[in-house]
Amino acid sequence: MGLLSDPEYGSVKWVRVLKRVHGPLCFLCYLGALVWFFMLGNKEFNNETYFSENALLPGLVTNEFNGEHSAKQFYNEFMQELEDKYNDVEEIPVPWLVGKMSQLHLEVYTHNFTLNYPLGQGQVYKGTNVYGILRAPRTSSLEALVVSAPFRALESHQKGTGAGIALMLAFAKFARPQKYWAKDIIFLITEHEQLGMQAWLEAYHGLHNDAETFHTSLGSFWKPGIPSLDLSSFMPGFEWAGGDYKKCLDPGTLKGRSGSIQAAINLEFDTPKIKYIEVKIEGLNGQLPNLDLVNLVHKLCVKSGIHHSFRNSYSWIRGRNKMDDWMNGFWTMFDMVVSQIDGVPDGNHGLFHRFGIEAVTLEGRGPADAAGPAPRAHSLSTANFYRLGVALEAILRSLNNLLERFHQSYFFYLLAATNRFISIGQYMPSLCLLCVAMLIRALSLWVSIQQDGDEETDKQDTKTKSPKIDKDSDSEVPGDEKVEEVKPRRKSVKDDSSMSVVNIGANYLLVHLIGYAVMNSPIILSQIGARYNKPSEVSVYYGLIAVSIVLTIVTPFLPRVLRKGRITYEELSLVNILLLIELSTVCLSVGMQNFPLGLAIAVVYTPLALMCSVVVKGGGKGRALYLFFRRVLCLLVHPLLAVSLCMILFSRVLFPEEGILDMISRGSDAAMQATMFSIVDSMIYGNWLFNLTTAVILPIWILFWQILTIKVEAP
Amino acid sequence: MYLNNVIYPFLFIIATSFTFTSGAEIPEEFLKSNHSNNWAVLVDTSRFWFNYRHVANVLSIYRSVKRLGIPDSQIILMISDDMACNPRNPRPATIFNNAHEQINVYGDDVEVDYRGYEVSVENFVRLLTGRVPPDTPRSKRLLTDEGSNILIYLTGHGGDGFLKFQDSEEITSQELADALEQMWQKRRYNEIFFIIDTCQASSMYEKFYSPNILATASSLVGEDSLSHHVDSAIGVYIIDRYTYYVLEFLENVHPNSKRSMSEFLAVCPKSACLSTVGVRRDLFKRNPDKVPITDFFGSVRPVIITTDPINILDTPKRKKKPENKTKVPEKREYLPQFPMHLVQNARTG
Q1: Which domain range does residue B288 map to?
Q2: Is B214 left (phi over 0), alpha (psi -120 to 50) or beta?
Q3: Which terminus of chain B has fewer CB atoms gathered within 10 Å of its CB, N or C?
């Protein structure tokens, strides 16, 4: 096979074929990817779930749970306590919980944590978690299971969790005298939703708030005190909030610990009279619990006689025909993909995953749930504390049998139903096809500029027929010129056909540095806003809009600043090729970790990437129109604009009766909130979305914009 | 007169297989056996709580052979995991082989000779071939001779041509066959009865080439051996099918019963086992129909019963050998605990 730099290959057959067919081929790849993704919902393309872990022995043991009465009692007492003493305050009833857990002879501890809000005027939030440890009677405390429930105040707009906490206490009462526990069980009640859970997990794993940032705090050898880039030296007089590298969440310390946590079950039950259980699995950055745990929970729900669901897939609904099954599977999968894009966990279980702990949330739902009505939910039999307790007992006894961490089954998968899954090997091809389309496009561009170059050199030295000499002159002459050009930094360019790689490289690097700067800008923006007493979300959102507009206007002139003289067709083509390669690499590598995010980026940016090409001066009206269309498309997929548009559309879907202006204002408010959430999530929990968008996607977008706005001479 | 009857409390037993006198009569239904002692090697190769049933399997066989008369000193019991003391066991210090939990096969006097990580392929082969380190205690040695009948029972997880030991290593059928051949050449057995209860168990005996081996397996190649039932109070599969039916059969065998080996080989029909029990007879010289089951499972040796009184107070007179008389009794002394002469030599030299 010939080398790509071989000047002769212009005449090779595959090159000619590629040049002719690359357009339709790329389009077919794109279409193929979407079709493939659509097919994944079909039963022929996904598999039935199965247990890989032998040790679980699910459901073999007789259920002995007898705490129905005590669960009811705990529930009533807890509700009474909240109404009597905590009606107005959003505080967790620490004395009551500690008292109850102590009565059950658990080792009870409380855990305090503090959040220094990173944006704005430095608000400080405090919270308390309560946890009790049931020590395994016949073994050392080397391993643990966690049963957790978030505490929600009465006036919280979210569903309460009183029944979950009561169930947990009743289960603790039942489990305490049993002699078969081989792992400790930690009963944990957290405050402030995910914040409390994050603080507890960090404290449990010995993380402190003086580590650099959350991204580097796990598995990093960076220690505070090592000199690093000190930003304040660049701008004296301006106070940098991030300068002292304190994490905004201070997890504090735990007074009591157990062993390494093997698995966690998070309970969100408002009332015992639920109709079905929704098993929530999505975690931070799209991480998922091991499929074995998910299977286990579904299977034991079946065995305990509790209806269960996963998104659009309901255990009590069976499709009438294949088409129904397919659509149902597709929408379940699609729903899962959409909710995973933002990387925000849909329950407290999602924070466990990054610590290597498998966790799921069991959410109890009634017939008229906020999450949307389920078909025929009214006719289902109502669950009670007994059945819930039996299910919890069965799950924990099965987890108790574990000998190693969950590792046998899949970590990367999509679920098409409660009992059907799509493994990574089955869904990756759809993402790969998108990236292949971009790479084919890159290859065809490379081939065409090479050949153009060949033609020119052929014209220049027509005397030399030998291809070898031809090649030498091709590689040496521009190289020499480049060196001359760079070293004395001459302002004028002698040869139009020469390529200045350094020039392009500088532009490329600068654009990425801009992205990195935007990633770090929210703290500065919020501080500037705080000076004018603006709320941080407003200042950050409008600040980002301003930055985006400035960048949109300025960046097309960036290459000119770096280089006196016109940028050439070849240079811009090279940028285009590099850009396609970068984008496809980013999509693939992100897709390995968080497939939905990678897929979303690829689906949105591939059309632009395939249509984007170097703009040549001149041309007719049709060409100008096409160019205009491409520029509009490019503007539309600007990350910030795309988010805002999505939110506006979403608010249109939710509130169809409102006018256009209301819709826009509501949508932009939502976009503002979304931006703010993603920034805060990135700072507190280590969510990648904001960092990825600003540091990688934004530079890629800028490069596309540059290519589409700079007109060059035809080669 | 020969009887296999041990009802009479006062018997005068002369226990040797070489004392068949001319007056002896062999019962017509059984063939004569040459063995002089019985040994059993019972191995559970798998650990972990979910393999409870394998421990129950091996302890069931242990219980039977012990009940039928093989003493603990002649049973080598290898168990990889301590199920009785597993913290997950809701019935601490017991192992049951039936959901009714009537028989605690762990019992009061189980002597486990190799346990935990000592159960390895190396130790197993060394045990069989007798190539153990010199400091090995007697309880960990298979002290058999050319008159020994050995029962080998293996259980665990197997595949086509191998048996897995402890999730970490495996013994292949060829290695096992070679080990048995070594035993034969070293005259370490008279006859072997080889039982294996694993998946694809019959693959383990297909490579055997040494004489006098009767082998049976719970399943043929390509078949799985299945567990019998779950004890939902303990929460595990409690015993494998084959061993369950073997135990059911053995519970009705007594030291004096006249069951034959062929009955044992047919103990688990396919309807009960769900797998086909494999048997290999070609290496075995006797007809299994005519071999009493106690030749392998019990320690019942040929017995001469005499009705004539023997005066045991009258000690039999030994032949006085003149050479013994003249021989000076050997002078015995303790060895020095520390080789002082070496040290003294070193000092002087």
Answers
A1: 33-295
A2: beta
A3: C
Q: What SS3 class is residue A535? A: coil
In a domain, B208, yes or no: yes
Q: Domain map of chain A by residue range?
A: 1-49+426-460, 54-209+247-418, 499-712
Which chain A positions have a beta carbon within 8 Å of B236's beta carbon? 57, 60
- A55 at B interface, C-beta within 8 A: yes
Closest to A180 (Cα-Cα) out of A143, A125, A139, A232: A139
Q: Structure pTM?
A: 0.82
State both tokens at A589. 């590598």
Distance CA(B50)–CA(B244), nearest Å, equals 17
Structure token pair of residue A624: 């100008």
Say if CB A351 and CB A685 are below 8 A apart.
yes
Sequence-ordered alpha helix ranges (H) in A150-244: 162-175, 193-204, 214-217
Work out the mean pLDDT of chain A and round it to a whole number: 83
Q: Please, which pLDDT band fits residue A210 given cuts at 50, 70 and 90?
A: low
The two three-digit tokens of residue A185, written as one number? 């069980």
**Residue B161 domain flag:** yes
The verdict on B50 touching A (C-beta cutoff 8 Å) is yes
- Tally the C-alpha atoms within 13 A of residue B50's C-alpha that lie toward its C-beta: 18
B166 part of contact set with chain A, CB < 8 Å: no
The CA-based dihedral angle spanning residues A366, A368, A370, A373, taken in that order and rounded to the nearest 10 degrees: 100
Q: Does the annotation count B229 as an active-site position?
A: no
Domain count, chain B: 1
CA distances from A30 to A366, A428, A604, B197 (A): 41, 14, 11, 55
CA distance A10 to A4: 9
Domain contains B271: yes
Residue with tokens 């509130």: A655
| Interface-testing mutation among B88, B167, B199, with chain A (most A C-beta atoms within 10 A) | B88
Beta-bridge partners for A126: A114
Identity of the amino acid at B48: F
**To which H or E segment does residue A82 belong?**
helix A68-85
**C-alpha dihedral over A487, A488, A491, A493, to 10 degrees?**
-60
Q: Would you place residue B26 in the very low, low, confident or very high pLDDT band (cuts 50, 70, 90)?
A: very low
Strands (E), A554-700: 615-616
Q: CA-to-CA distance for B28 and A653, rounded, in angstroms?
A: 95
Residue range A54-209+247-418 in CATH 3.30.9.10: no
Q: Hey, are the CB atoms on A61 and B48 less than 8 Å from each other?
A: no
Q: Identify the H or E element spanning A387.
A: helix A385-400
**Residues A632-691: tens digit of each pLDDT:** 999 898 988 988 888 888 888 878 777 788 888 888 888 888 888 888 888 888 888 898
CATH number of the domain enclosing B86: 3.40.50.1460
What is the rounded CA–CA span in Å between residue B254 and residue B292?
A: 11
Distance CA B64, CA B58 (A): 10
**Strand ranges, E, within B241-344:** 278-280
Q: Is residue B107 part of a domain?
A: yes
One-letter identity of residue B46:
S
Put simply, the answer to whether B236 touches A60 (Cβ < 8 Å) is yes
The string of DSSP letters for B205-268 reads TTT--SSSEEEEESS-TT----EEEEETTTTEEEEEHHHHHHHHHHTT--TT---BHHHHHTSS
Using alpha carbons only, how large is chain B's radius of gyration in Å? 23
Q: Which of A57, A180, A397 sits opposite B89 (nearest CB)?
A: A180
| Cβ–Cβ contact B233 with A under 8 A | yes
Q: Which tokens belong to B314?
A: 């009258």
Beta bridge partners of B56: none
Q: Provide the ipTM.
A: 0.77
Q: Is the pLDDT confidence value at B222 over 90?
A: no
* Number of other CB atoms surrounding residue B9 within 10 Å: 5
Cα nearest neighbour of A404 on chain B: B48
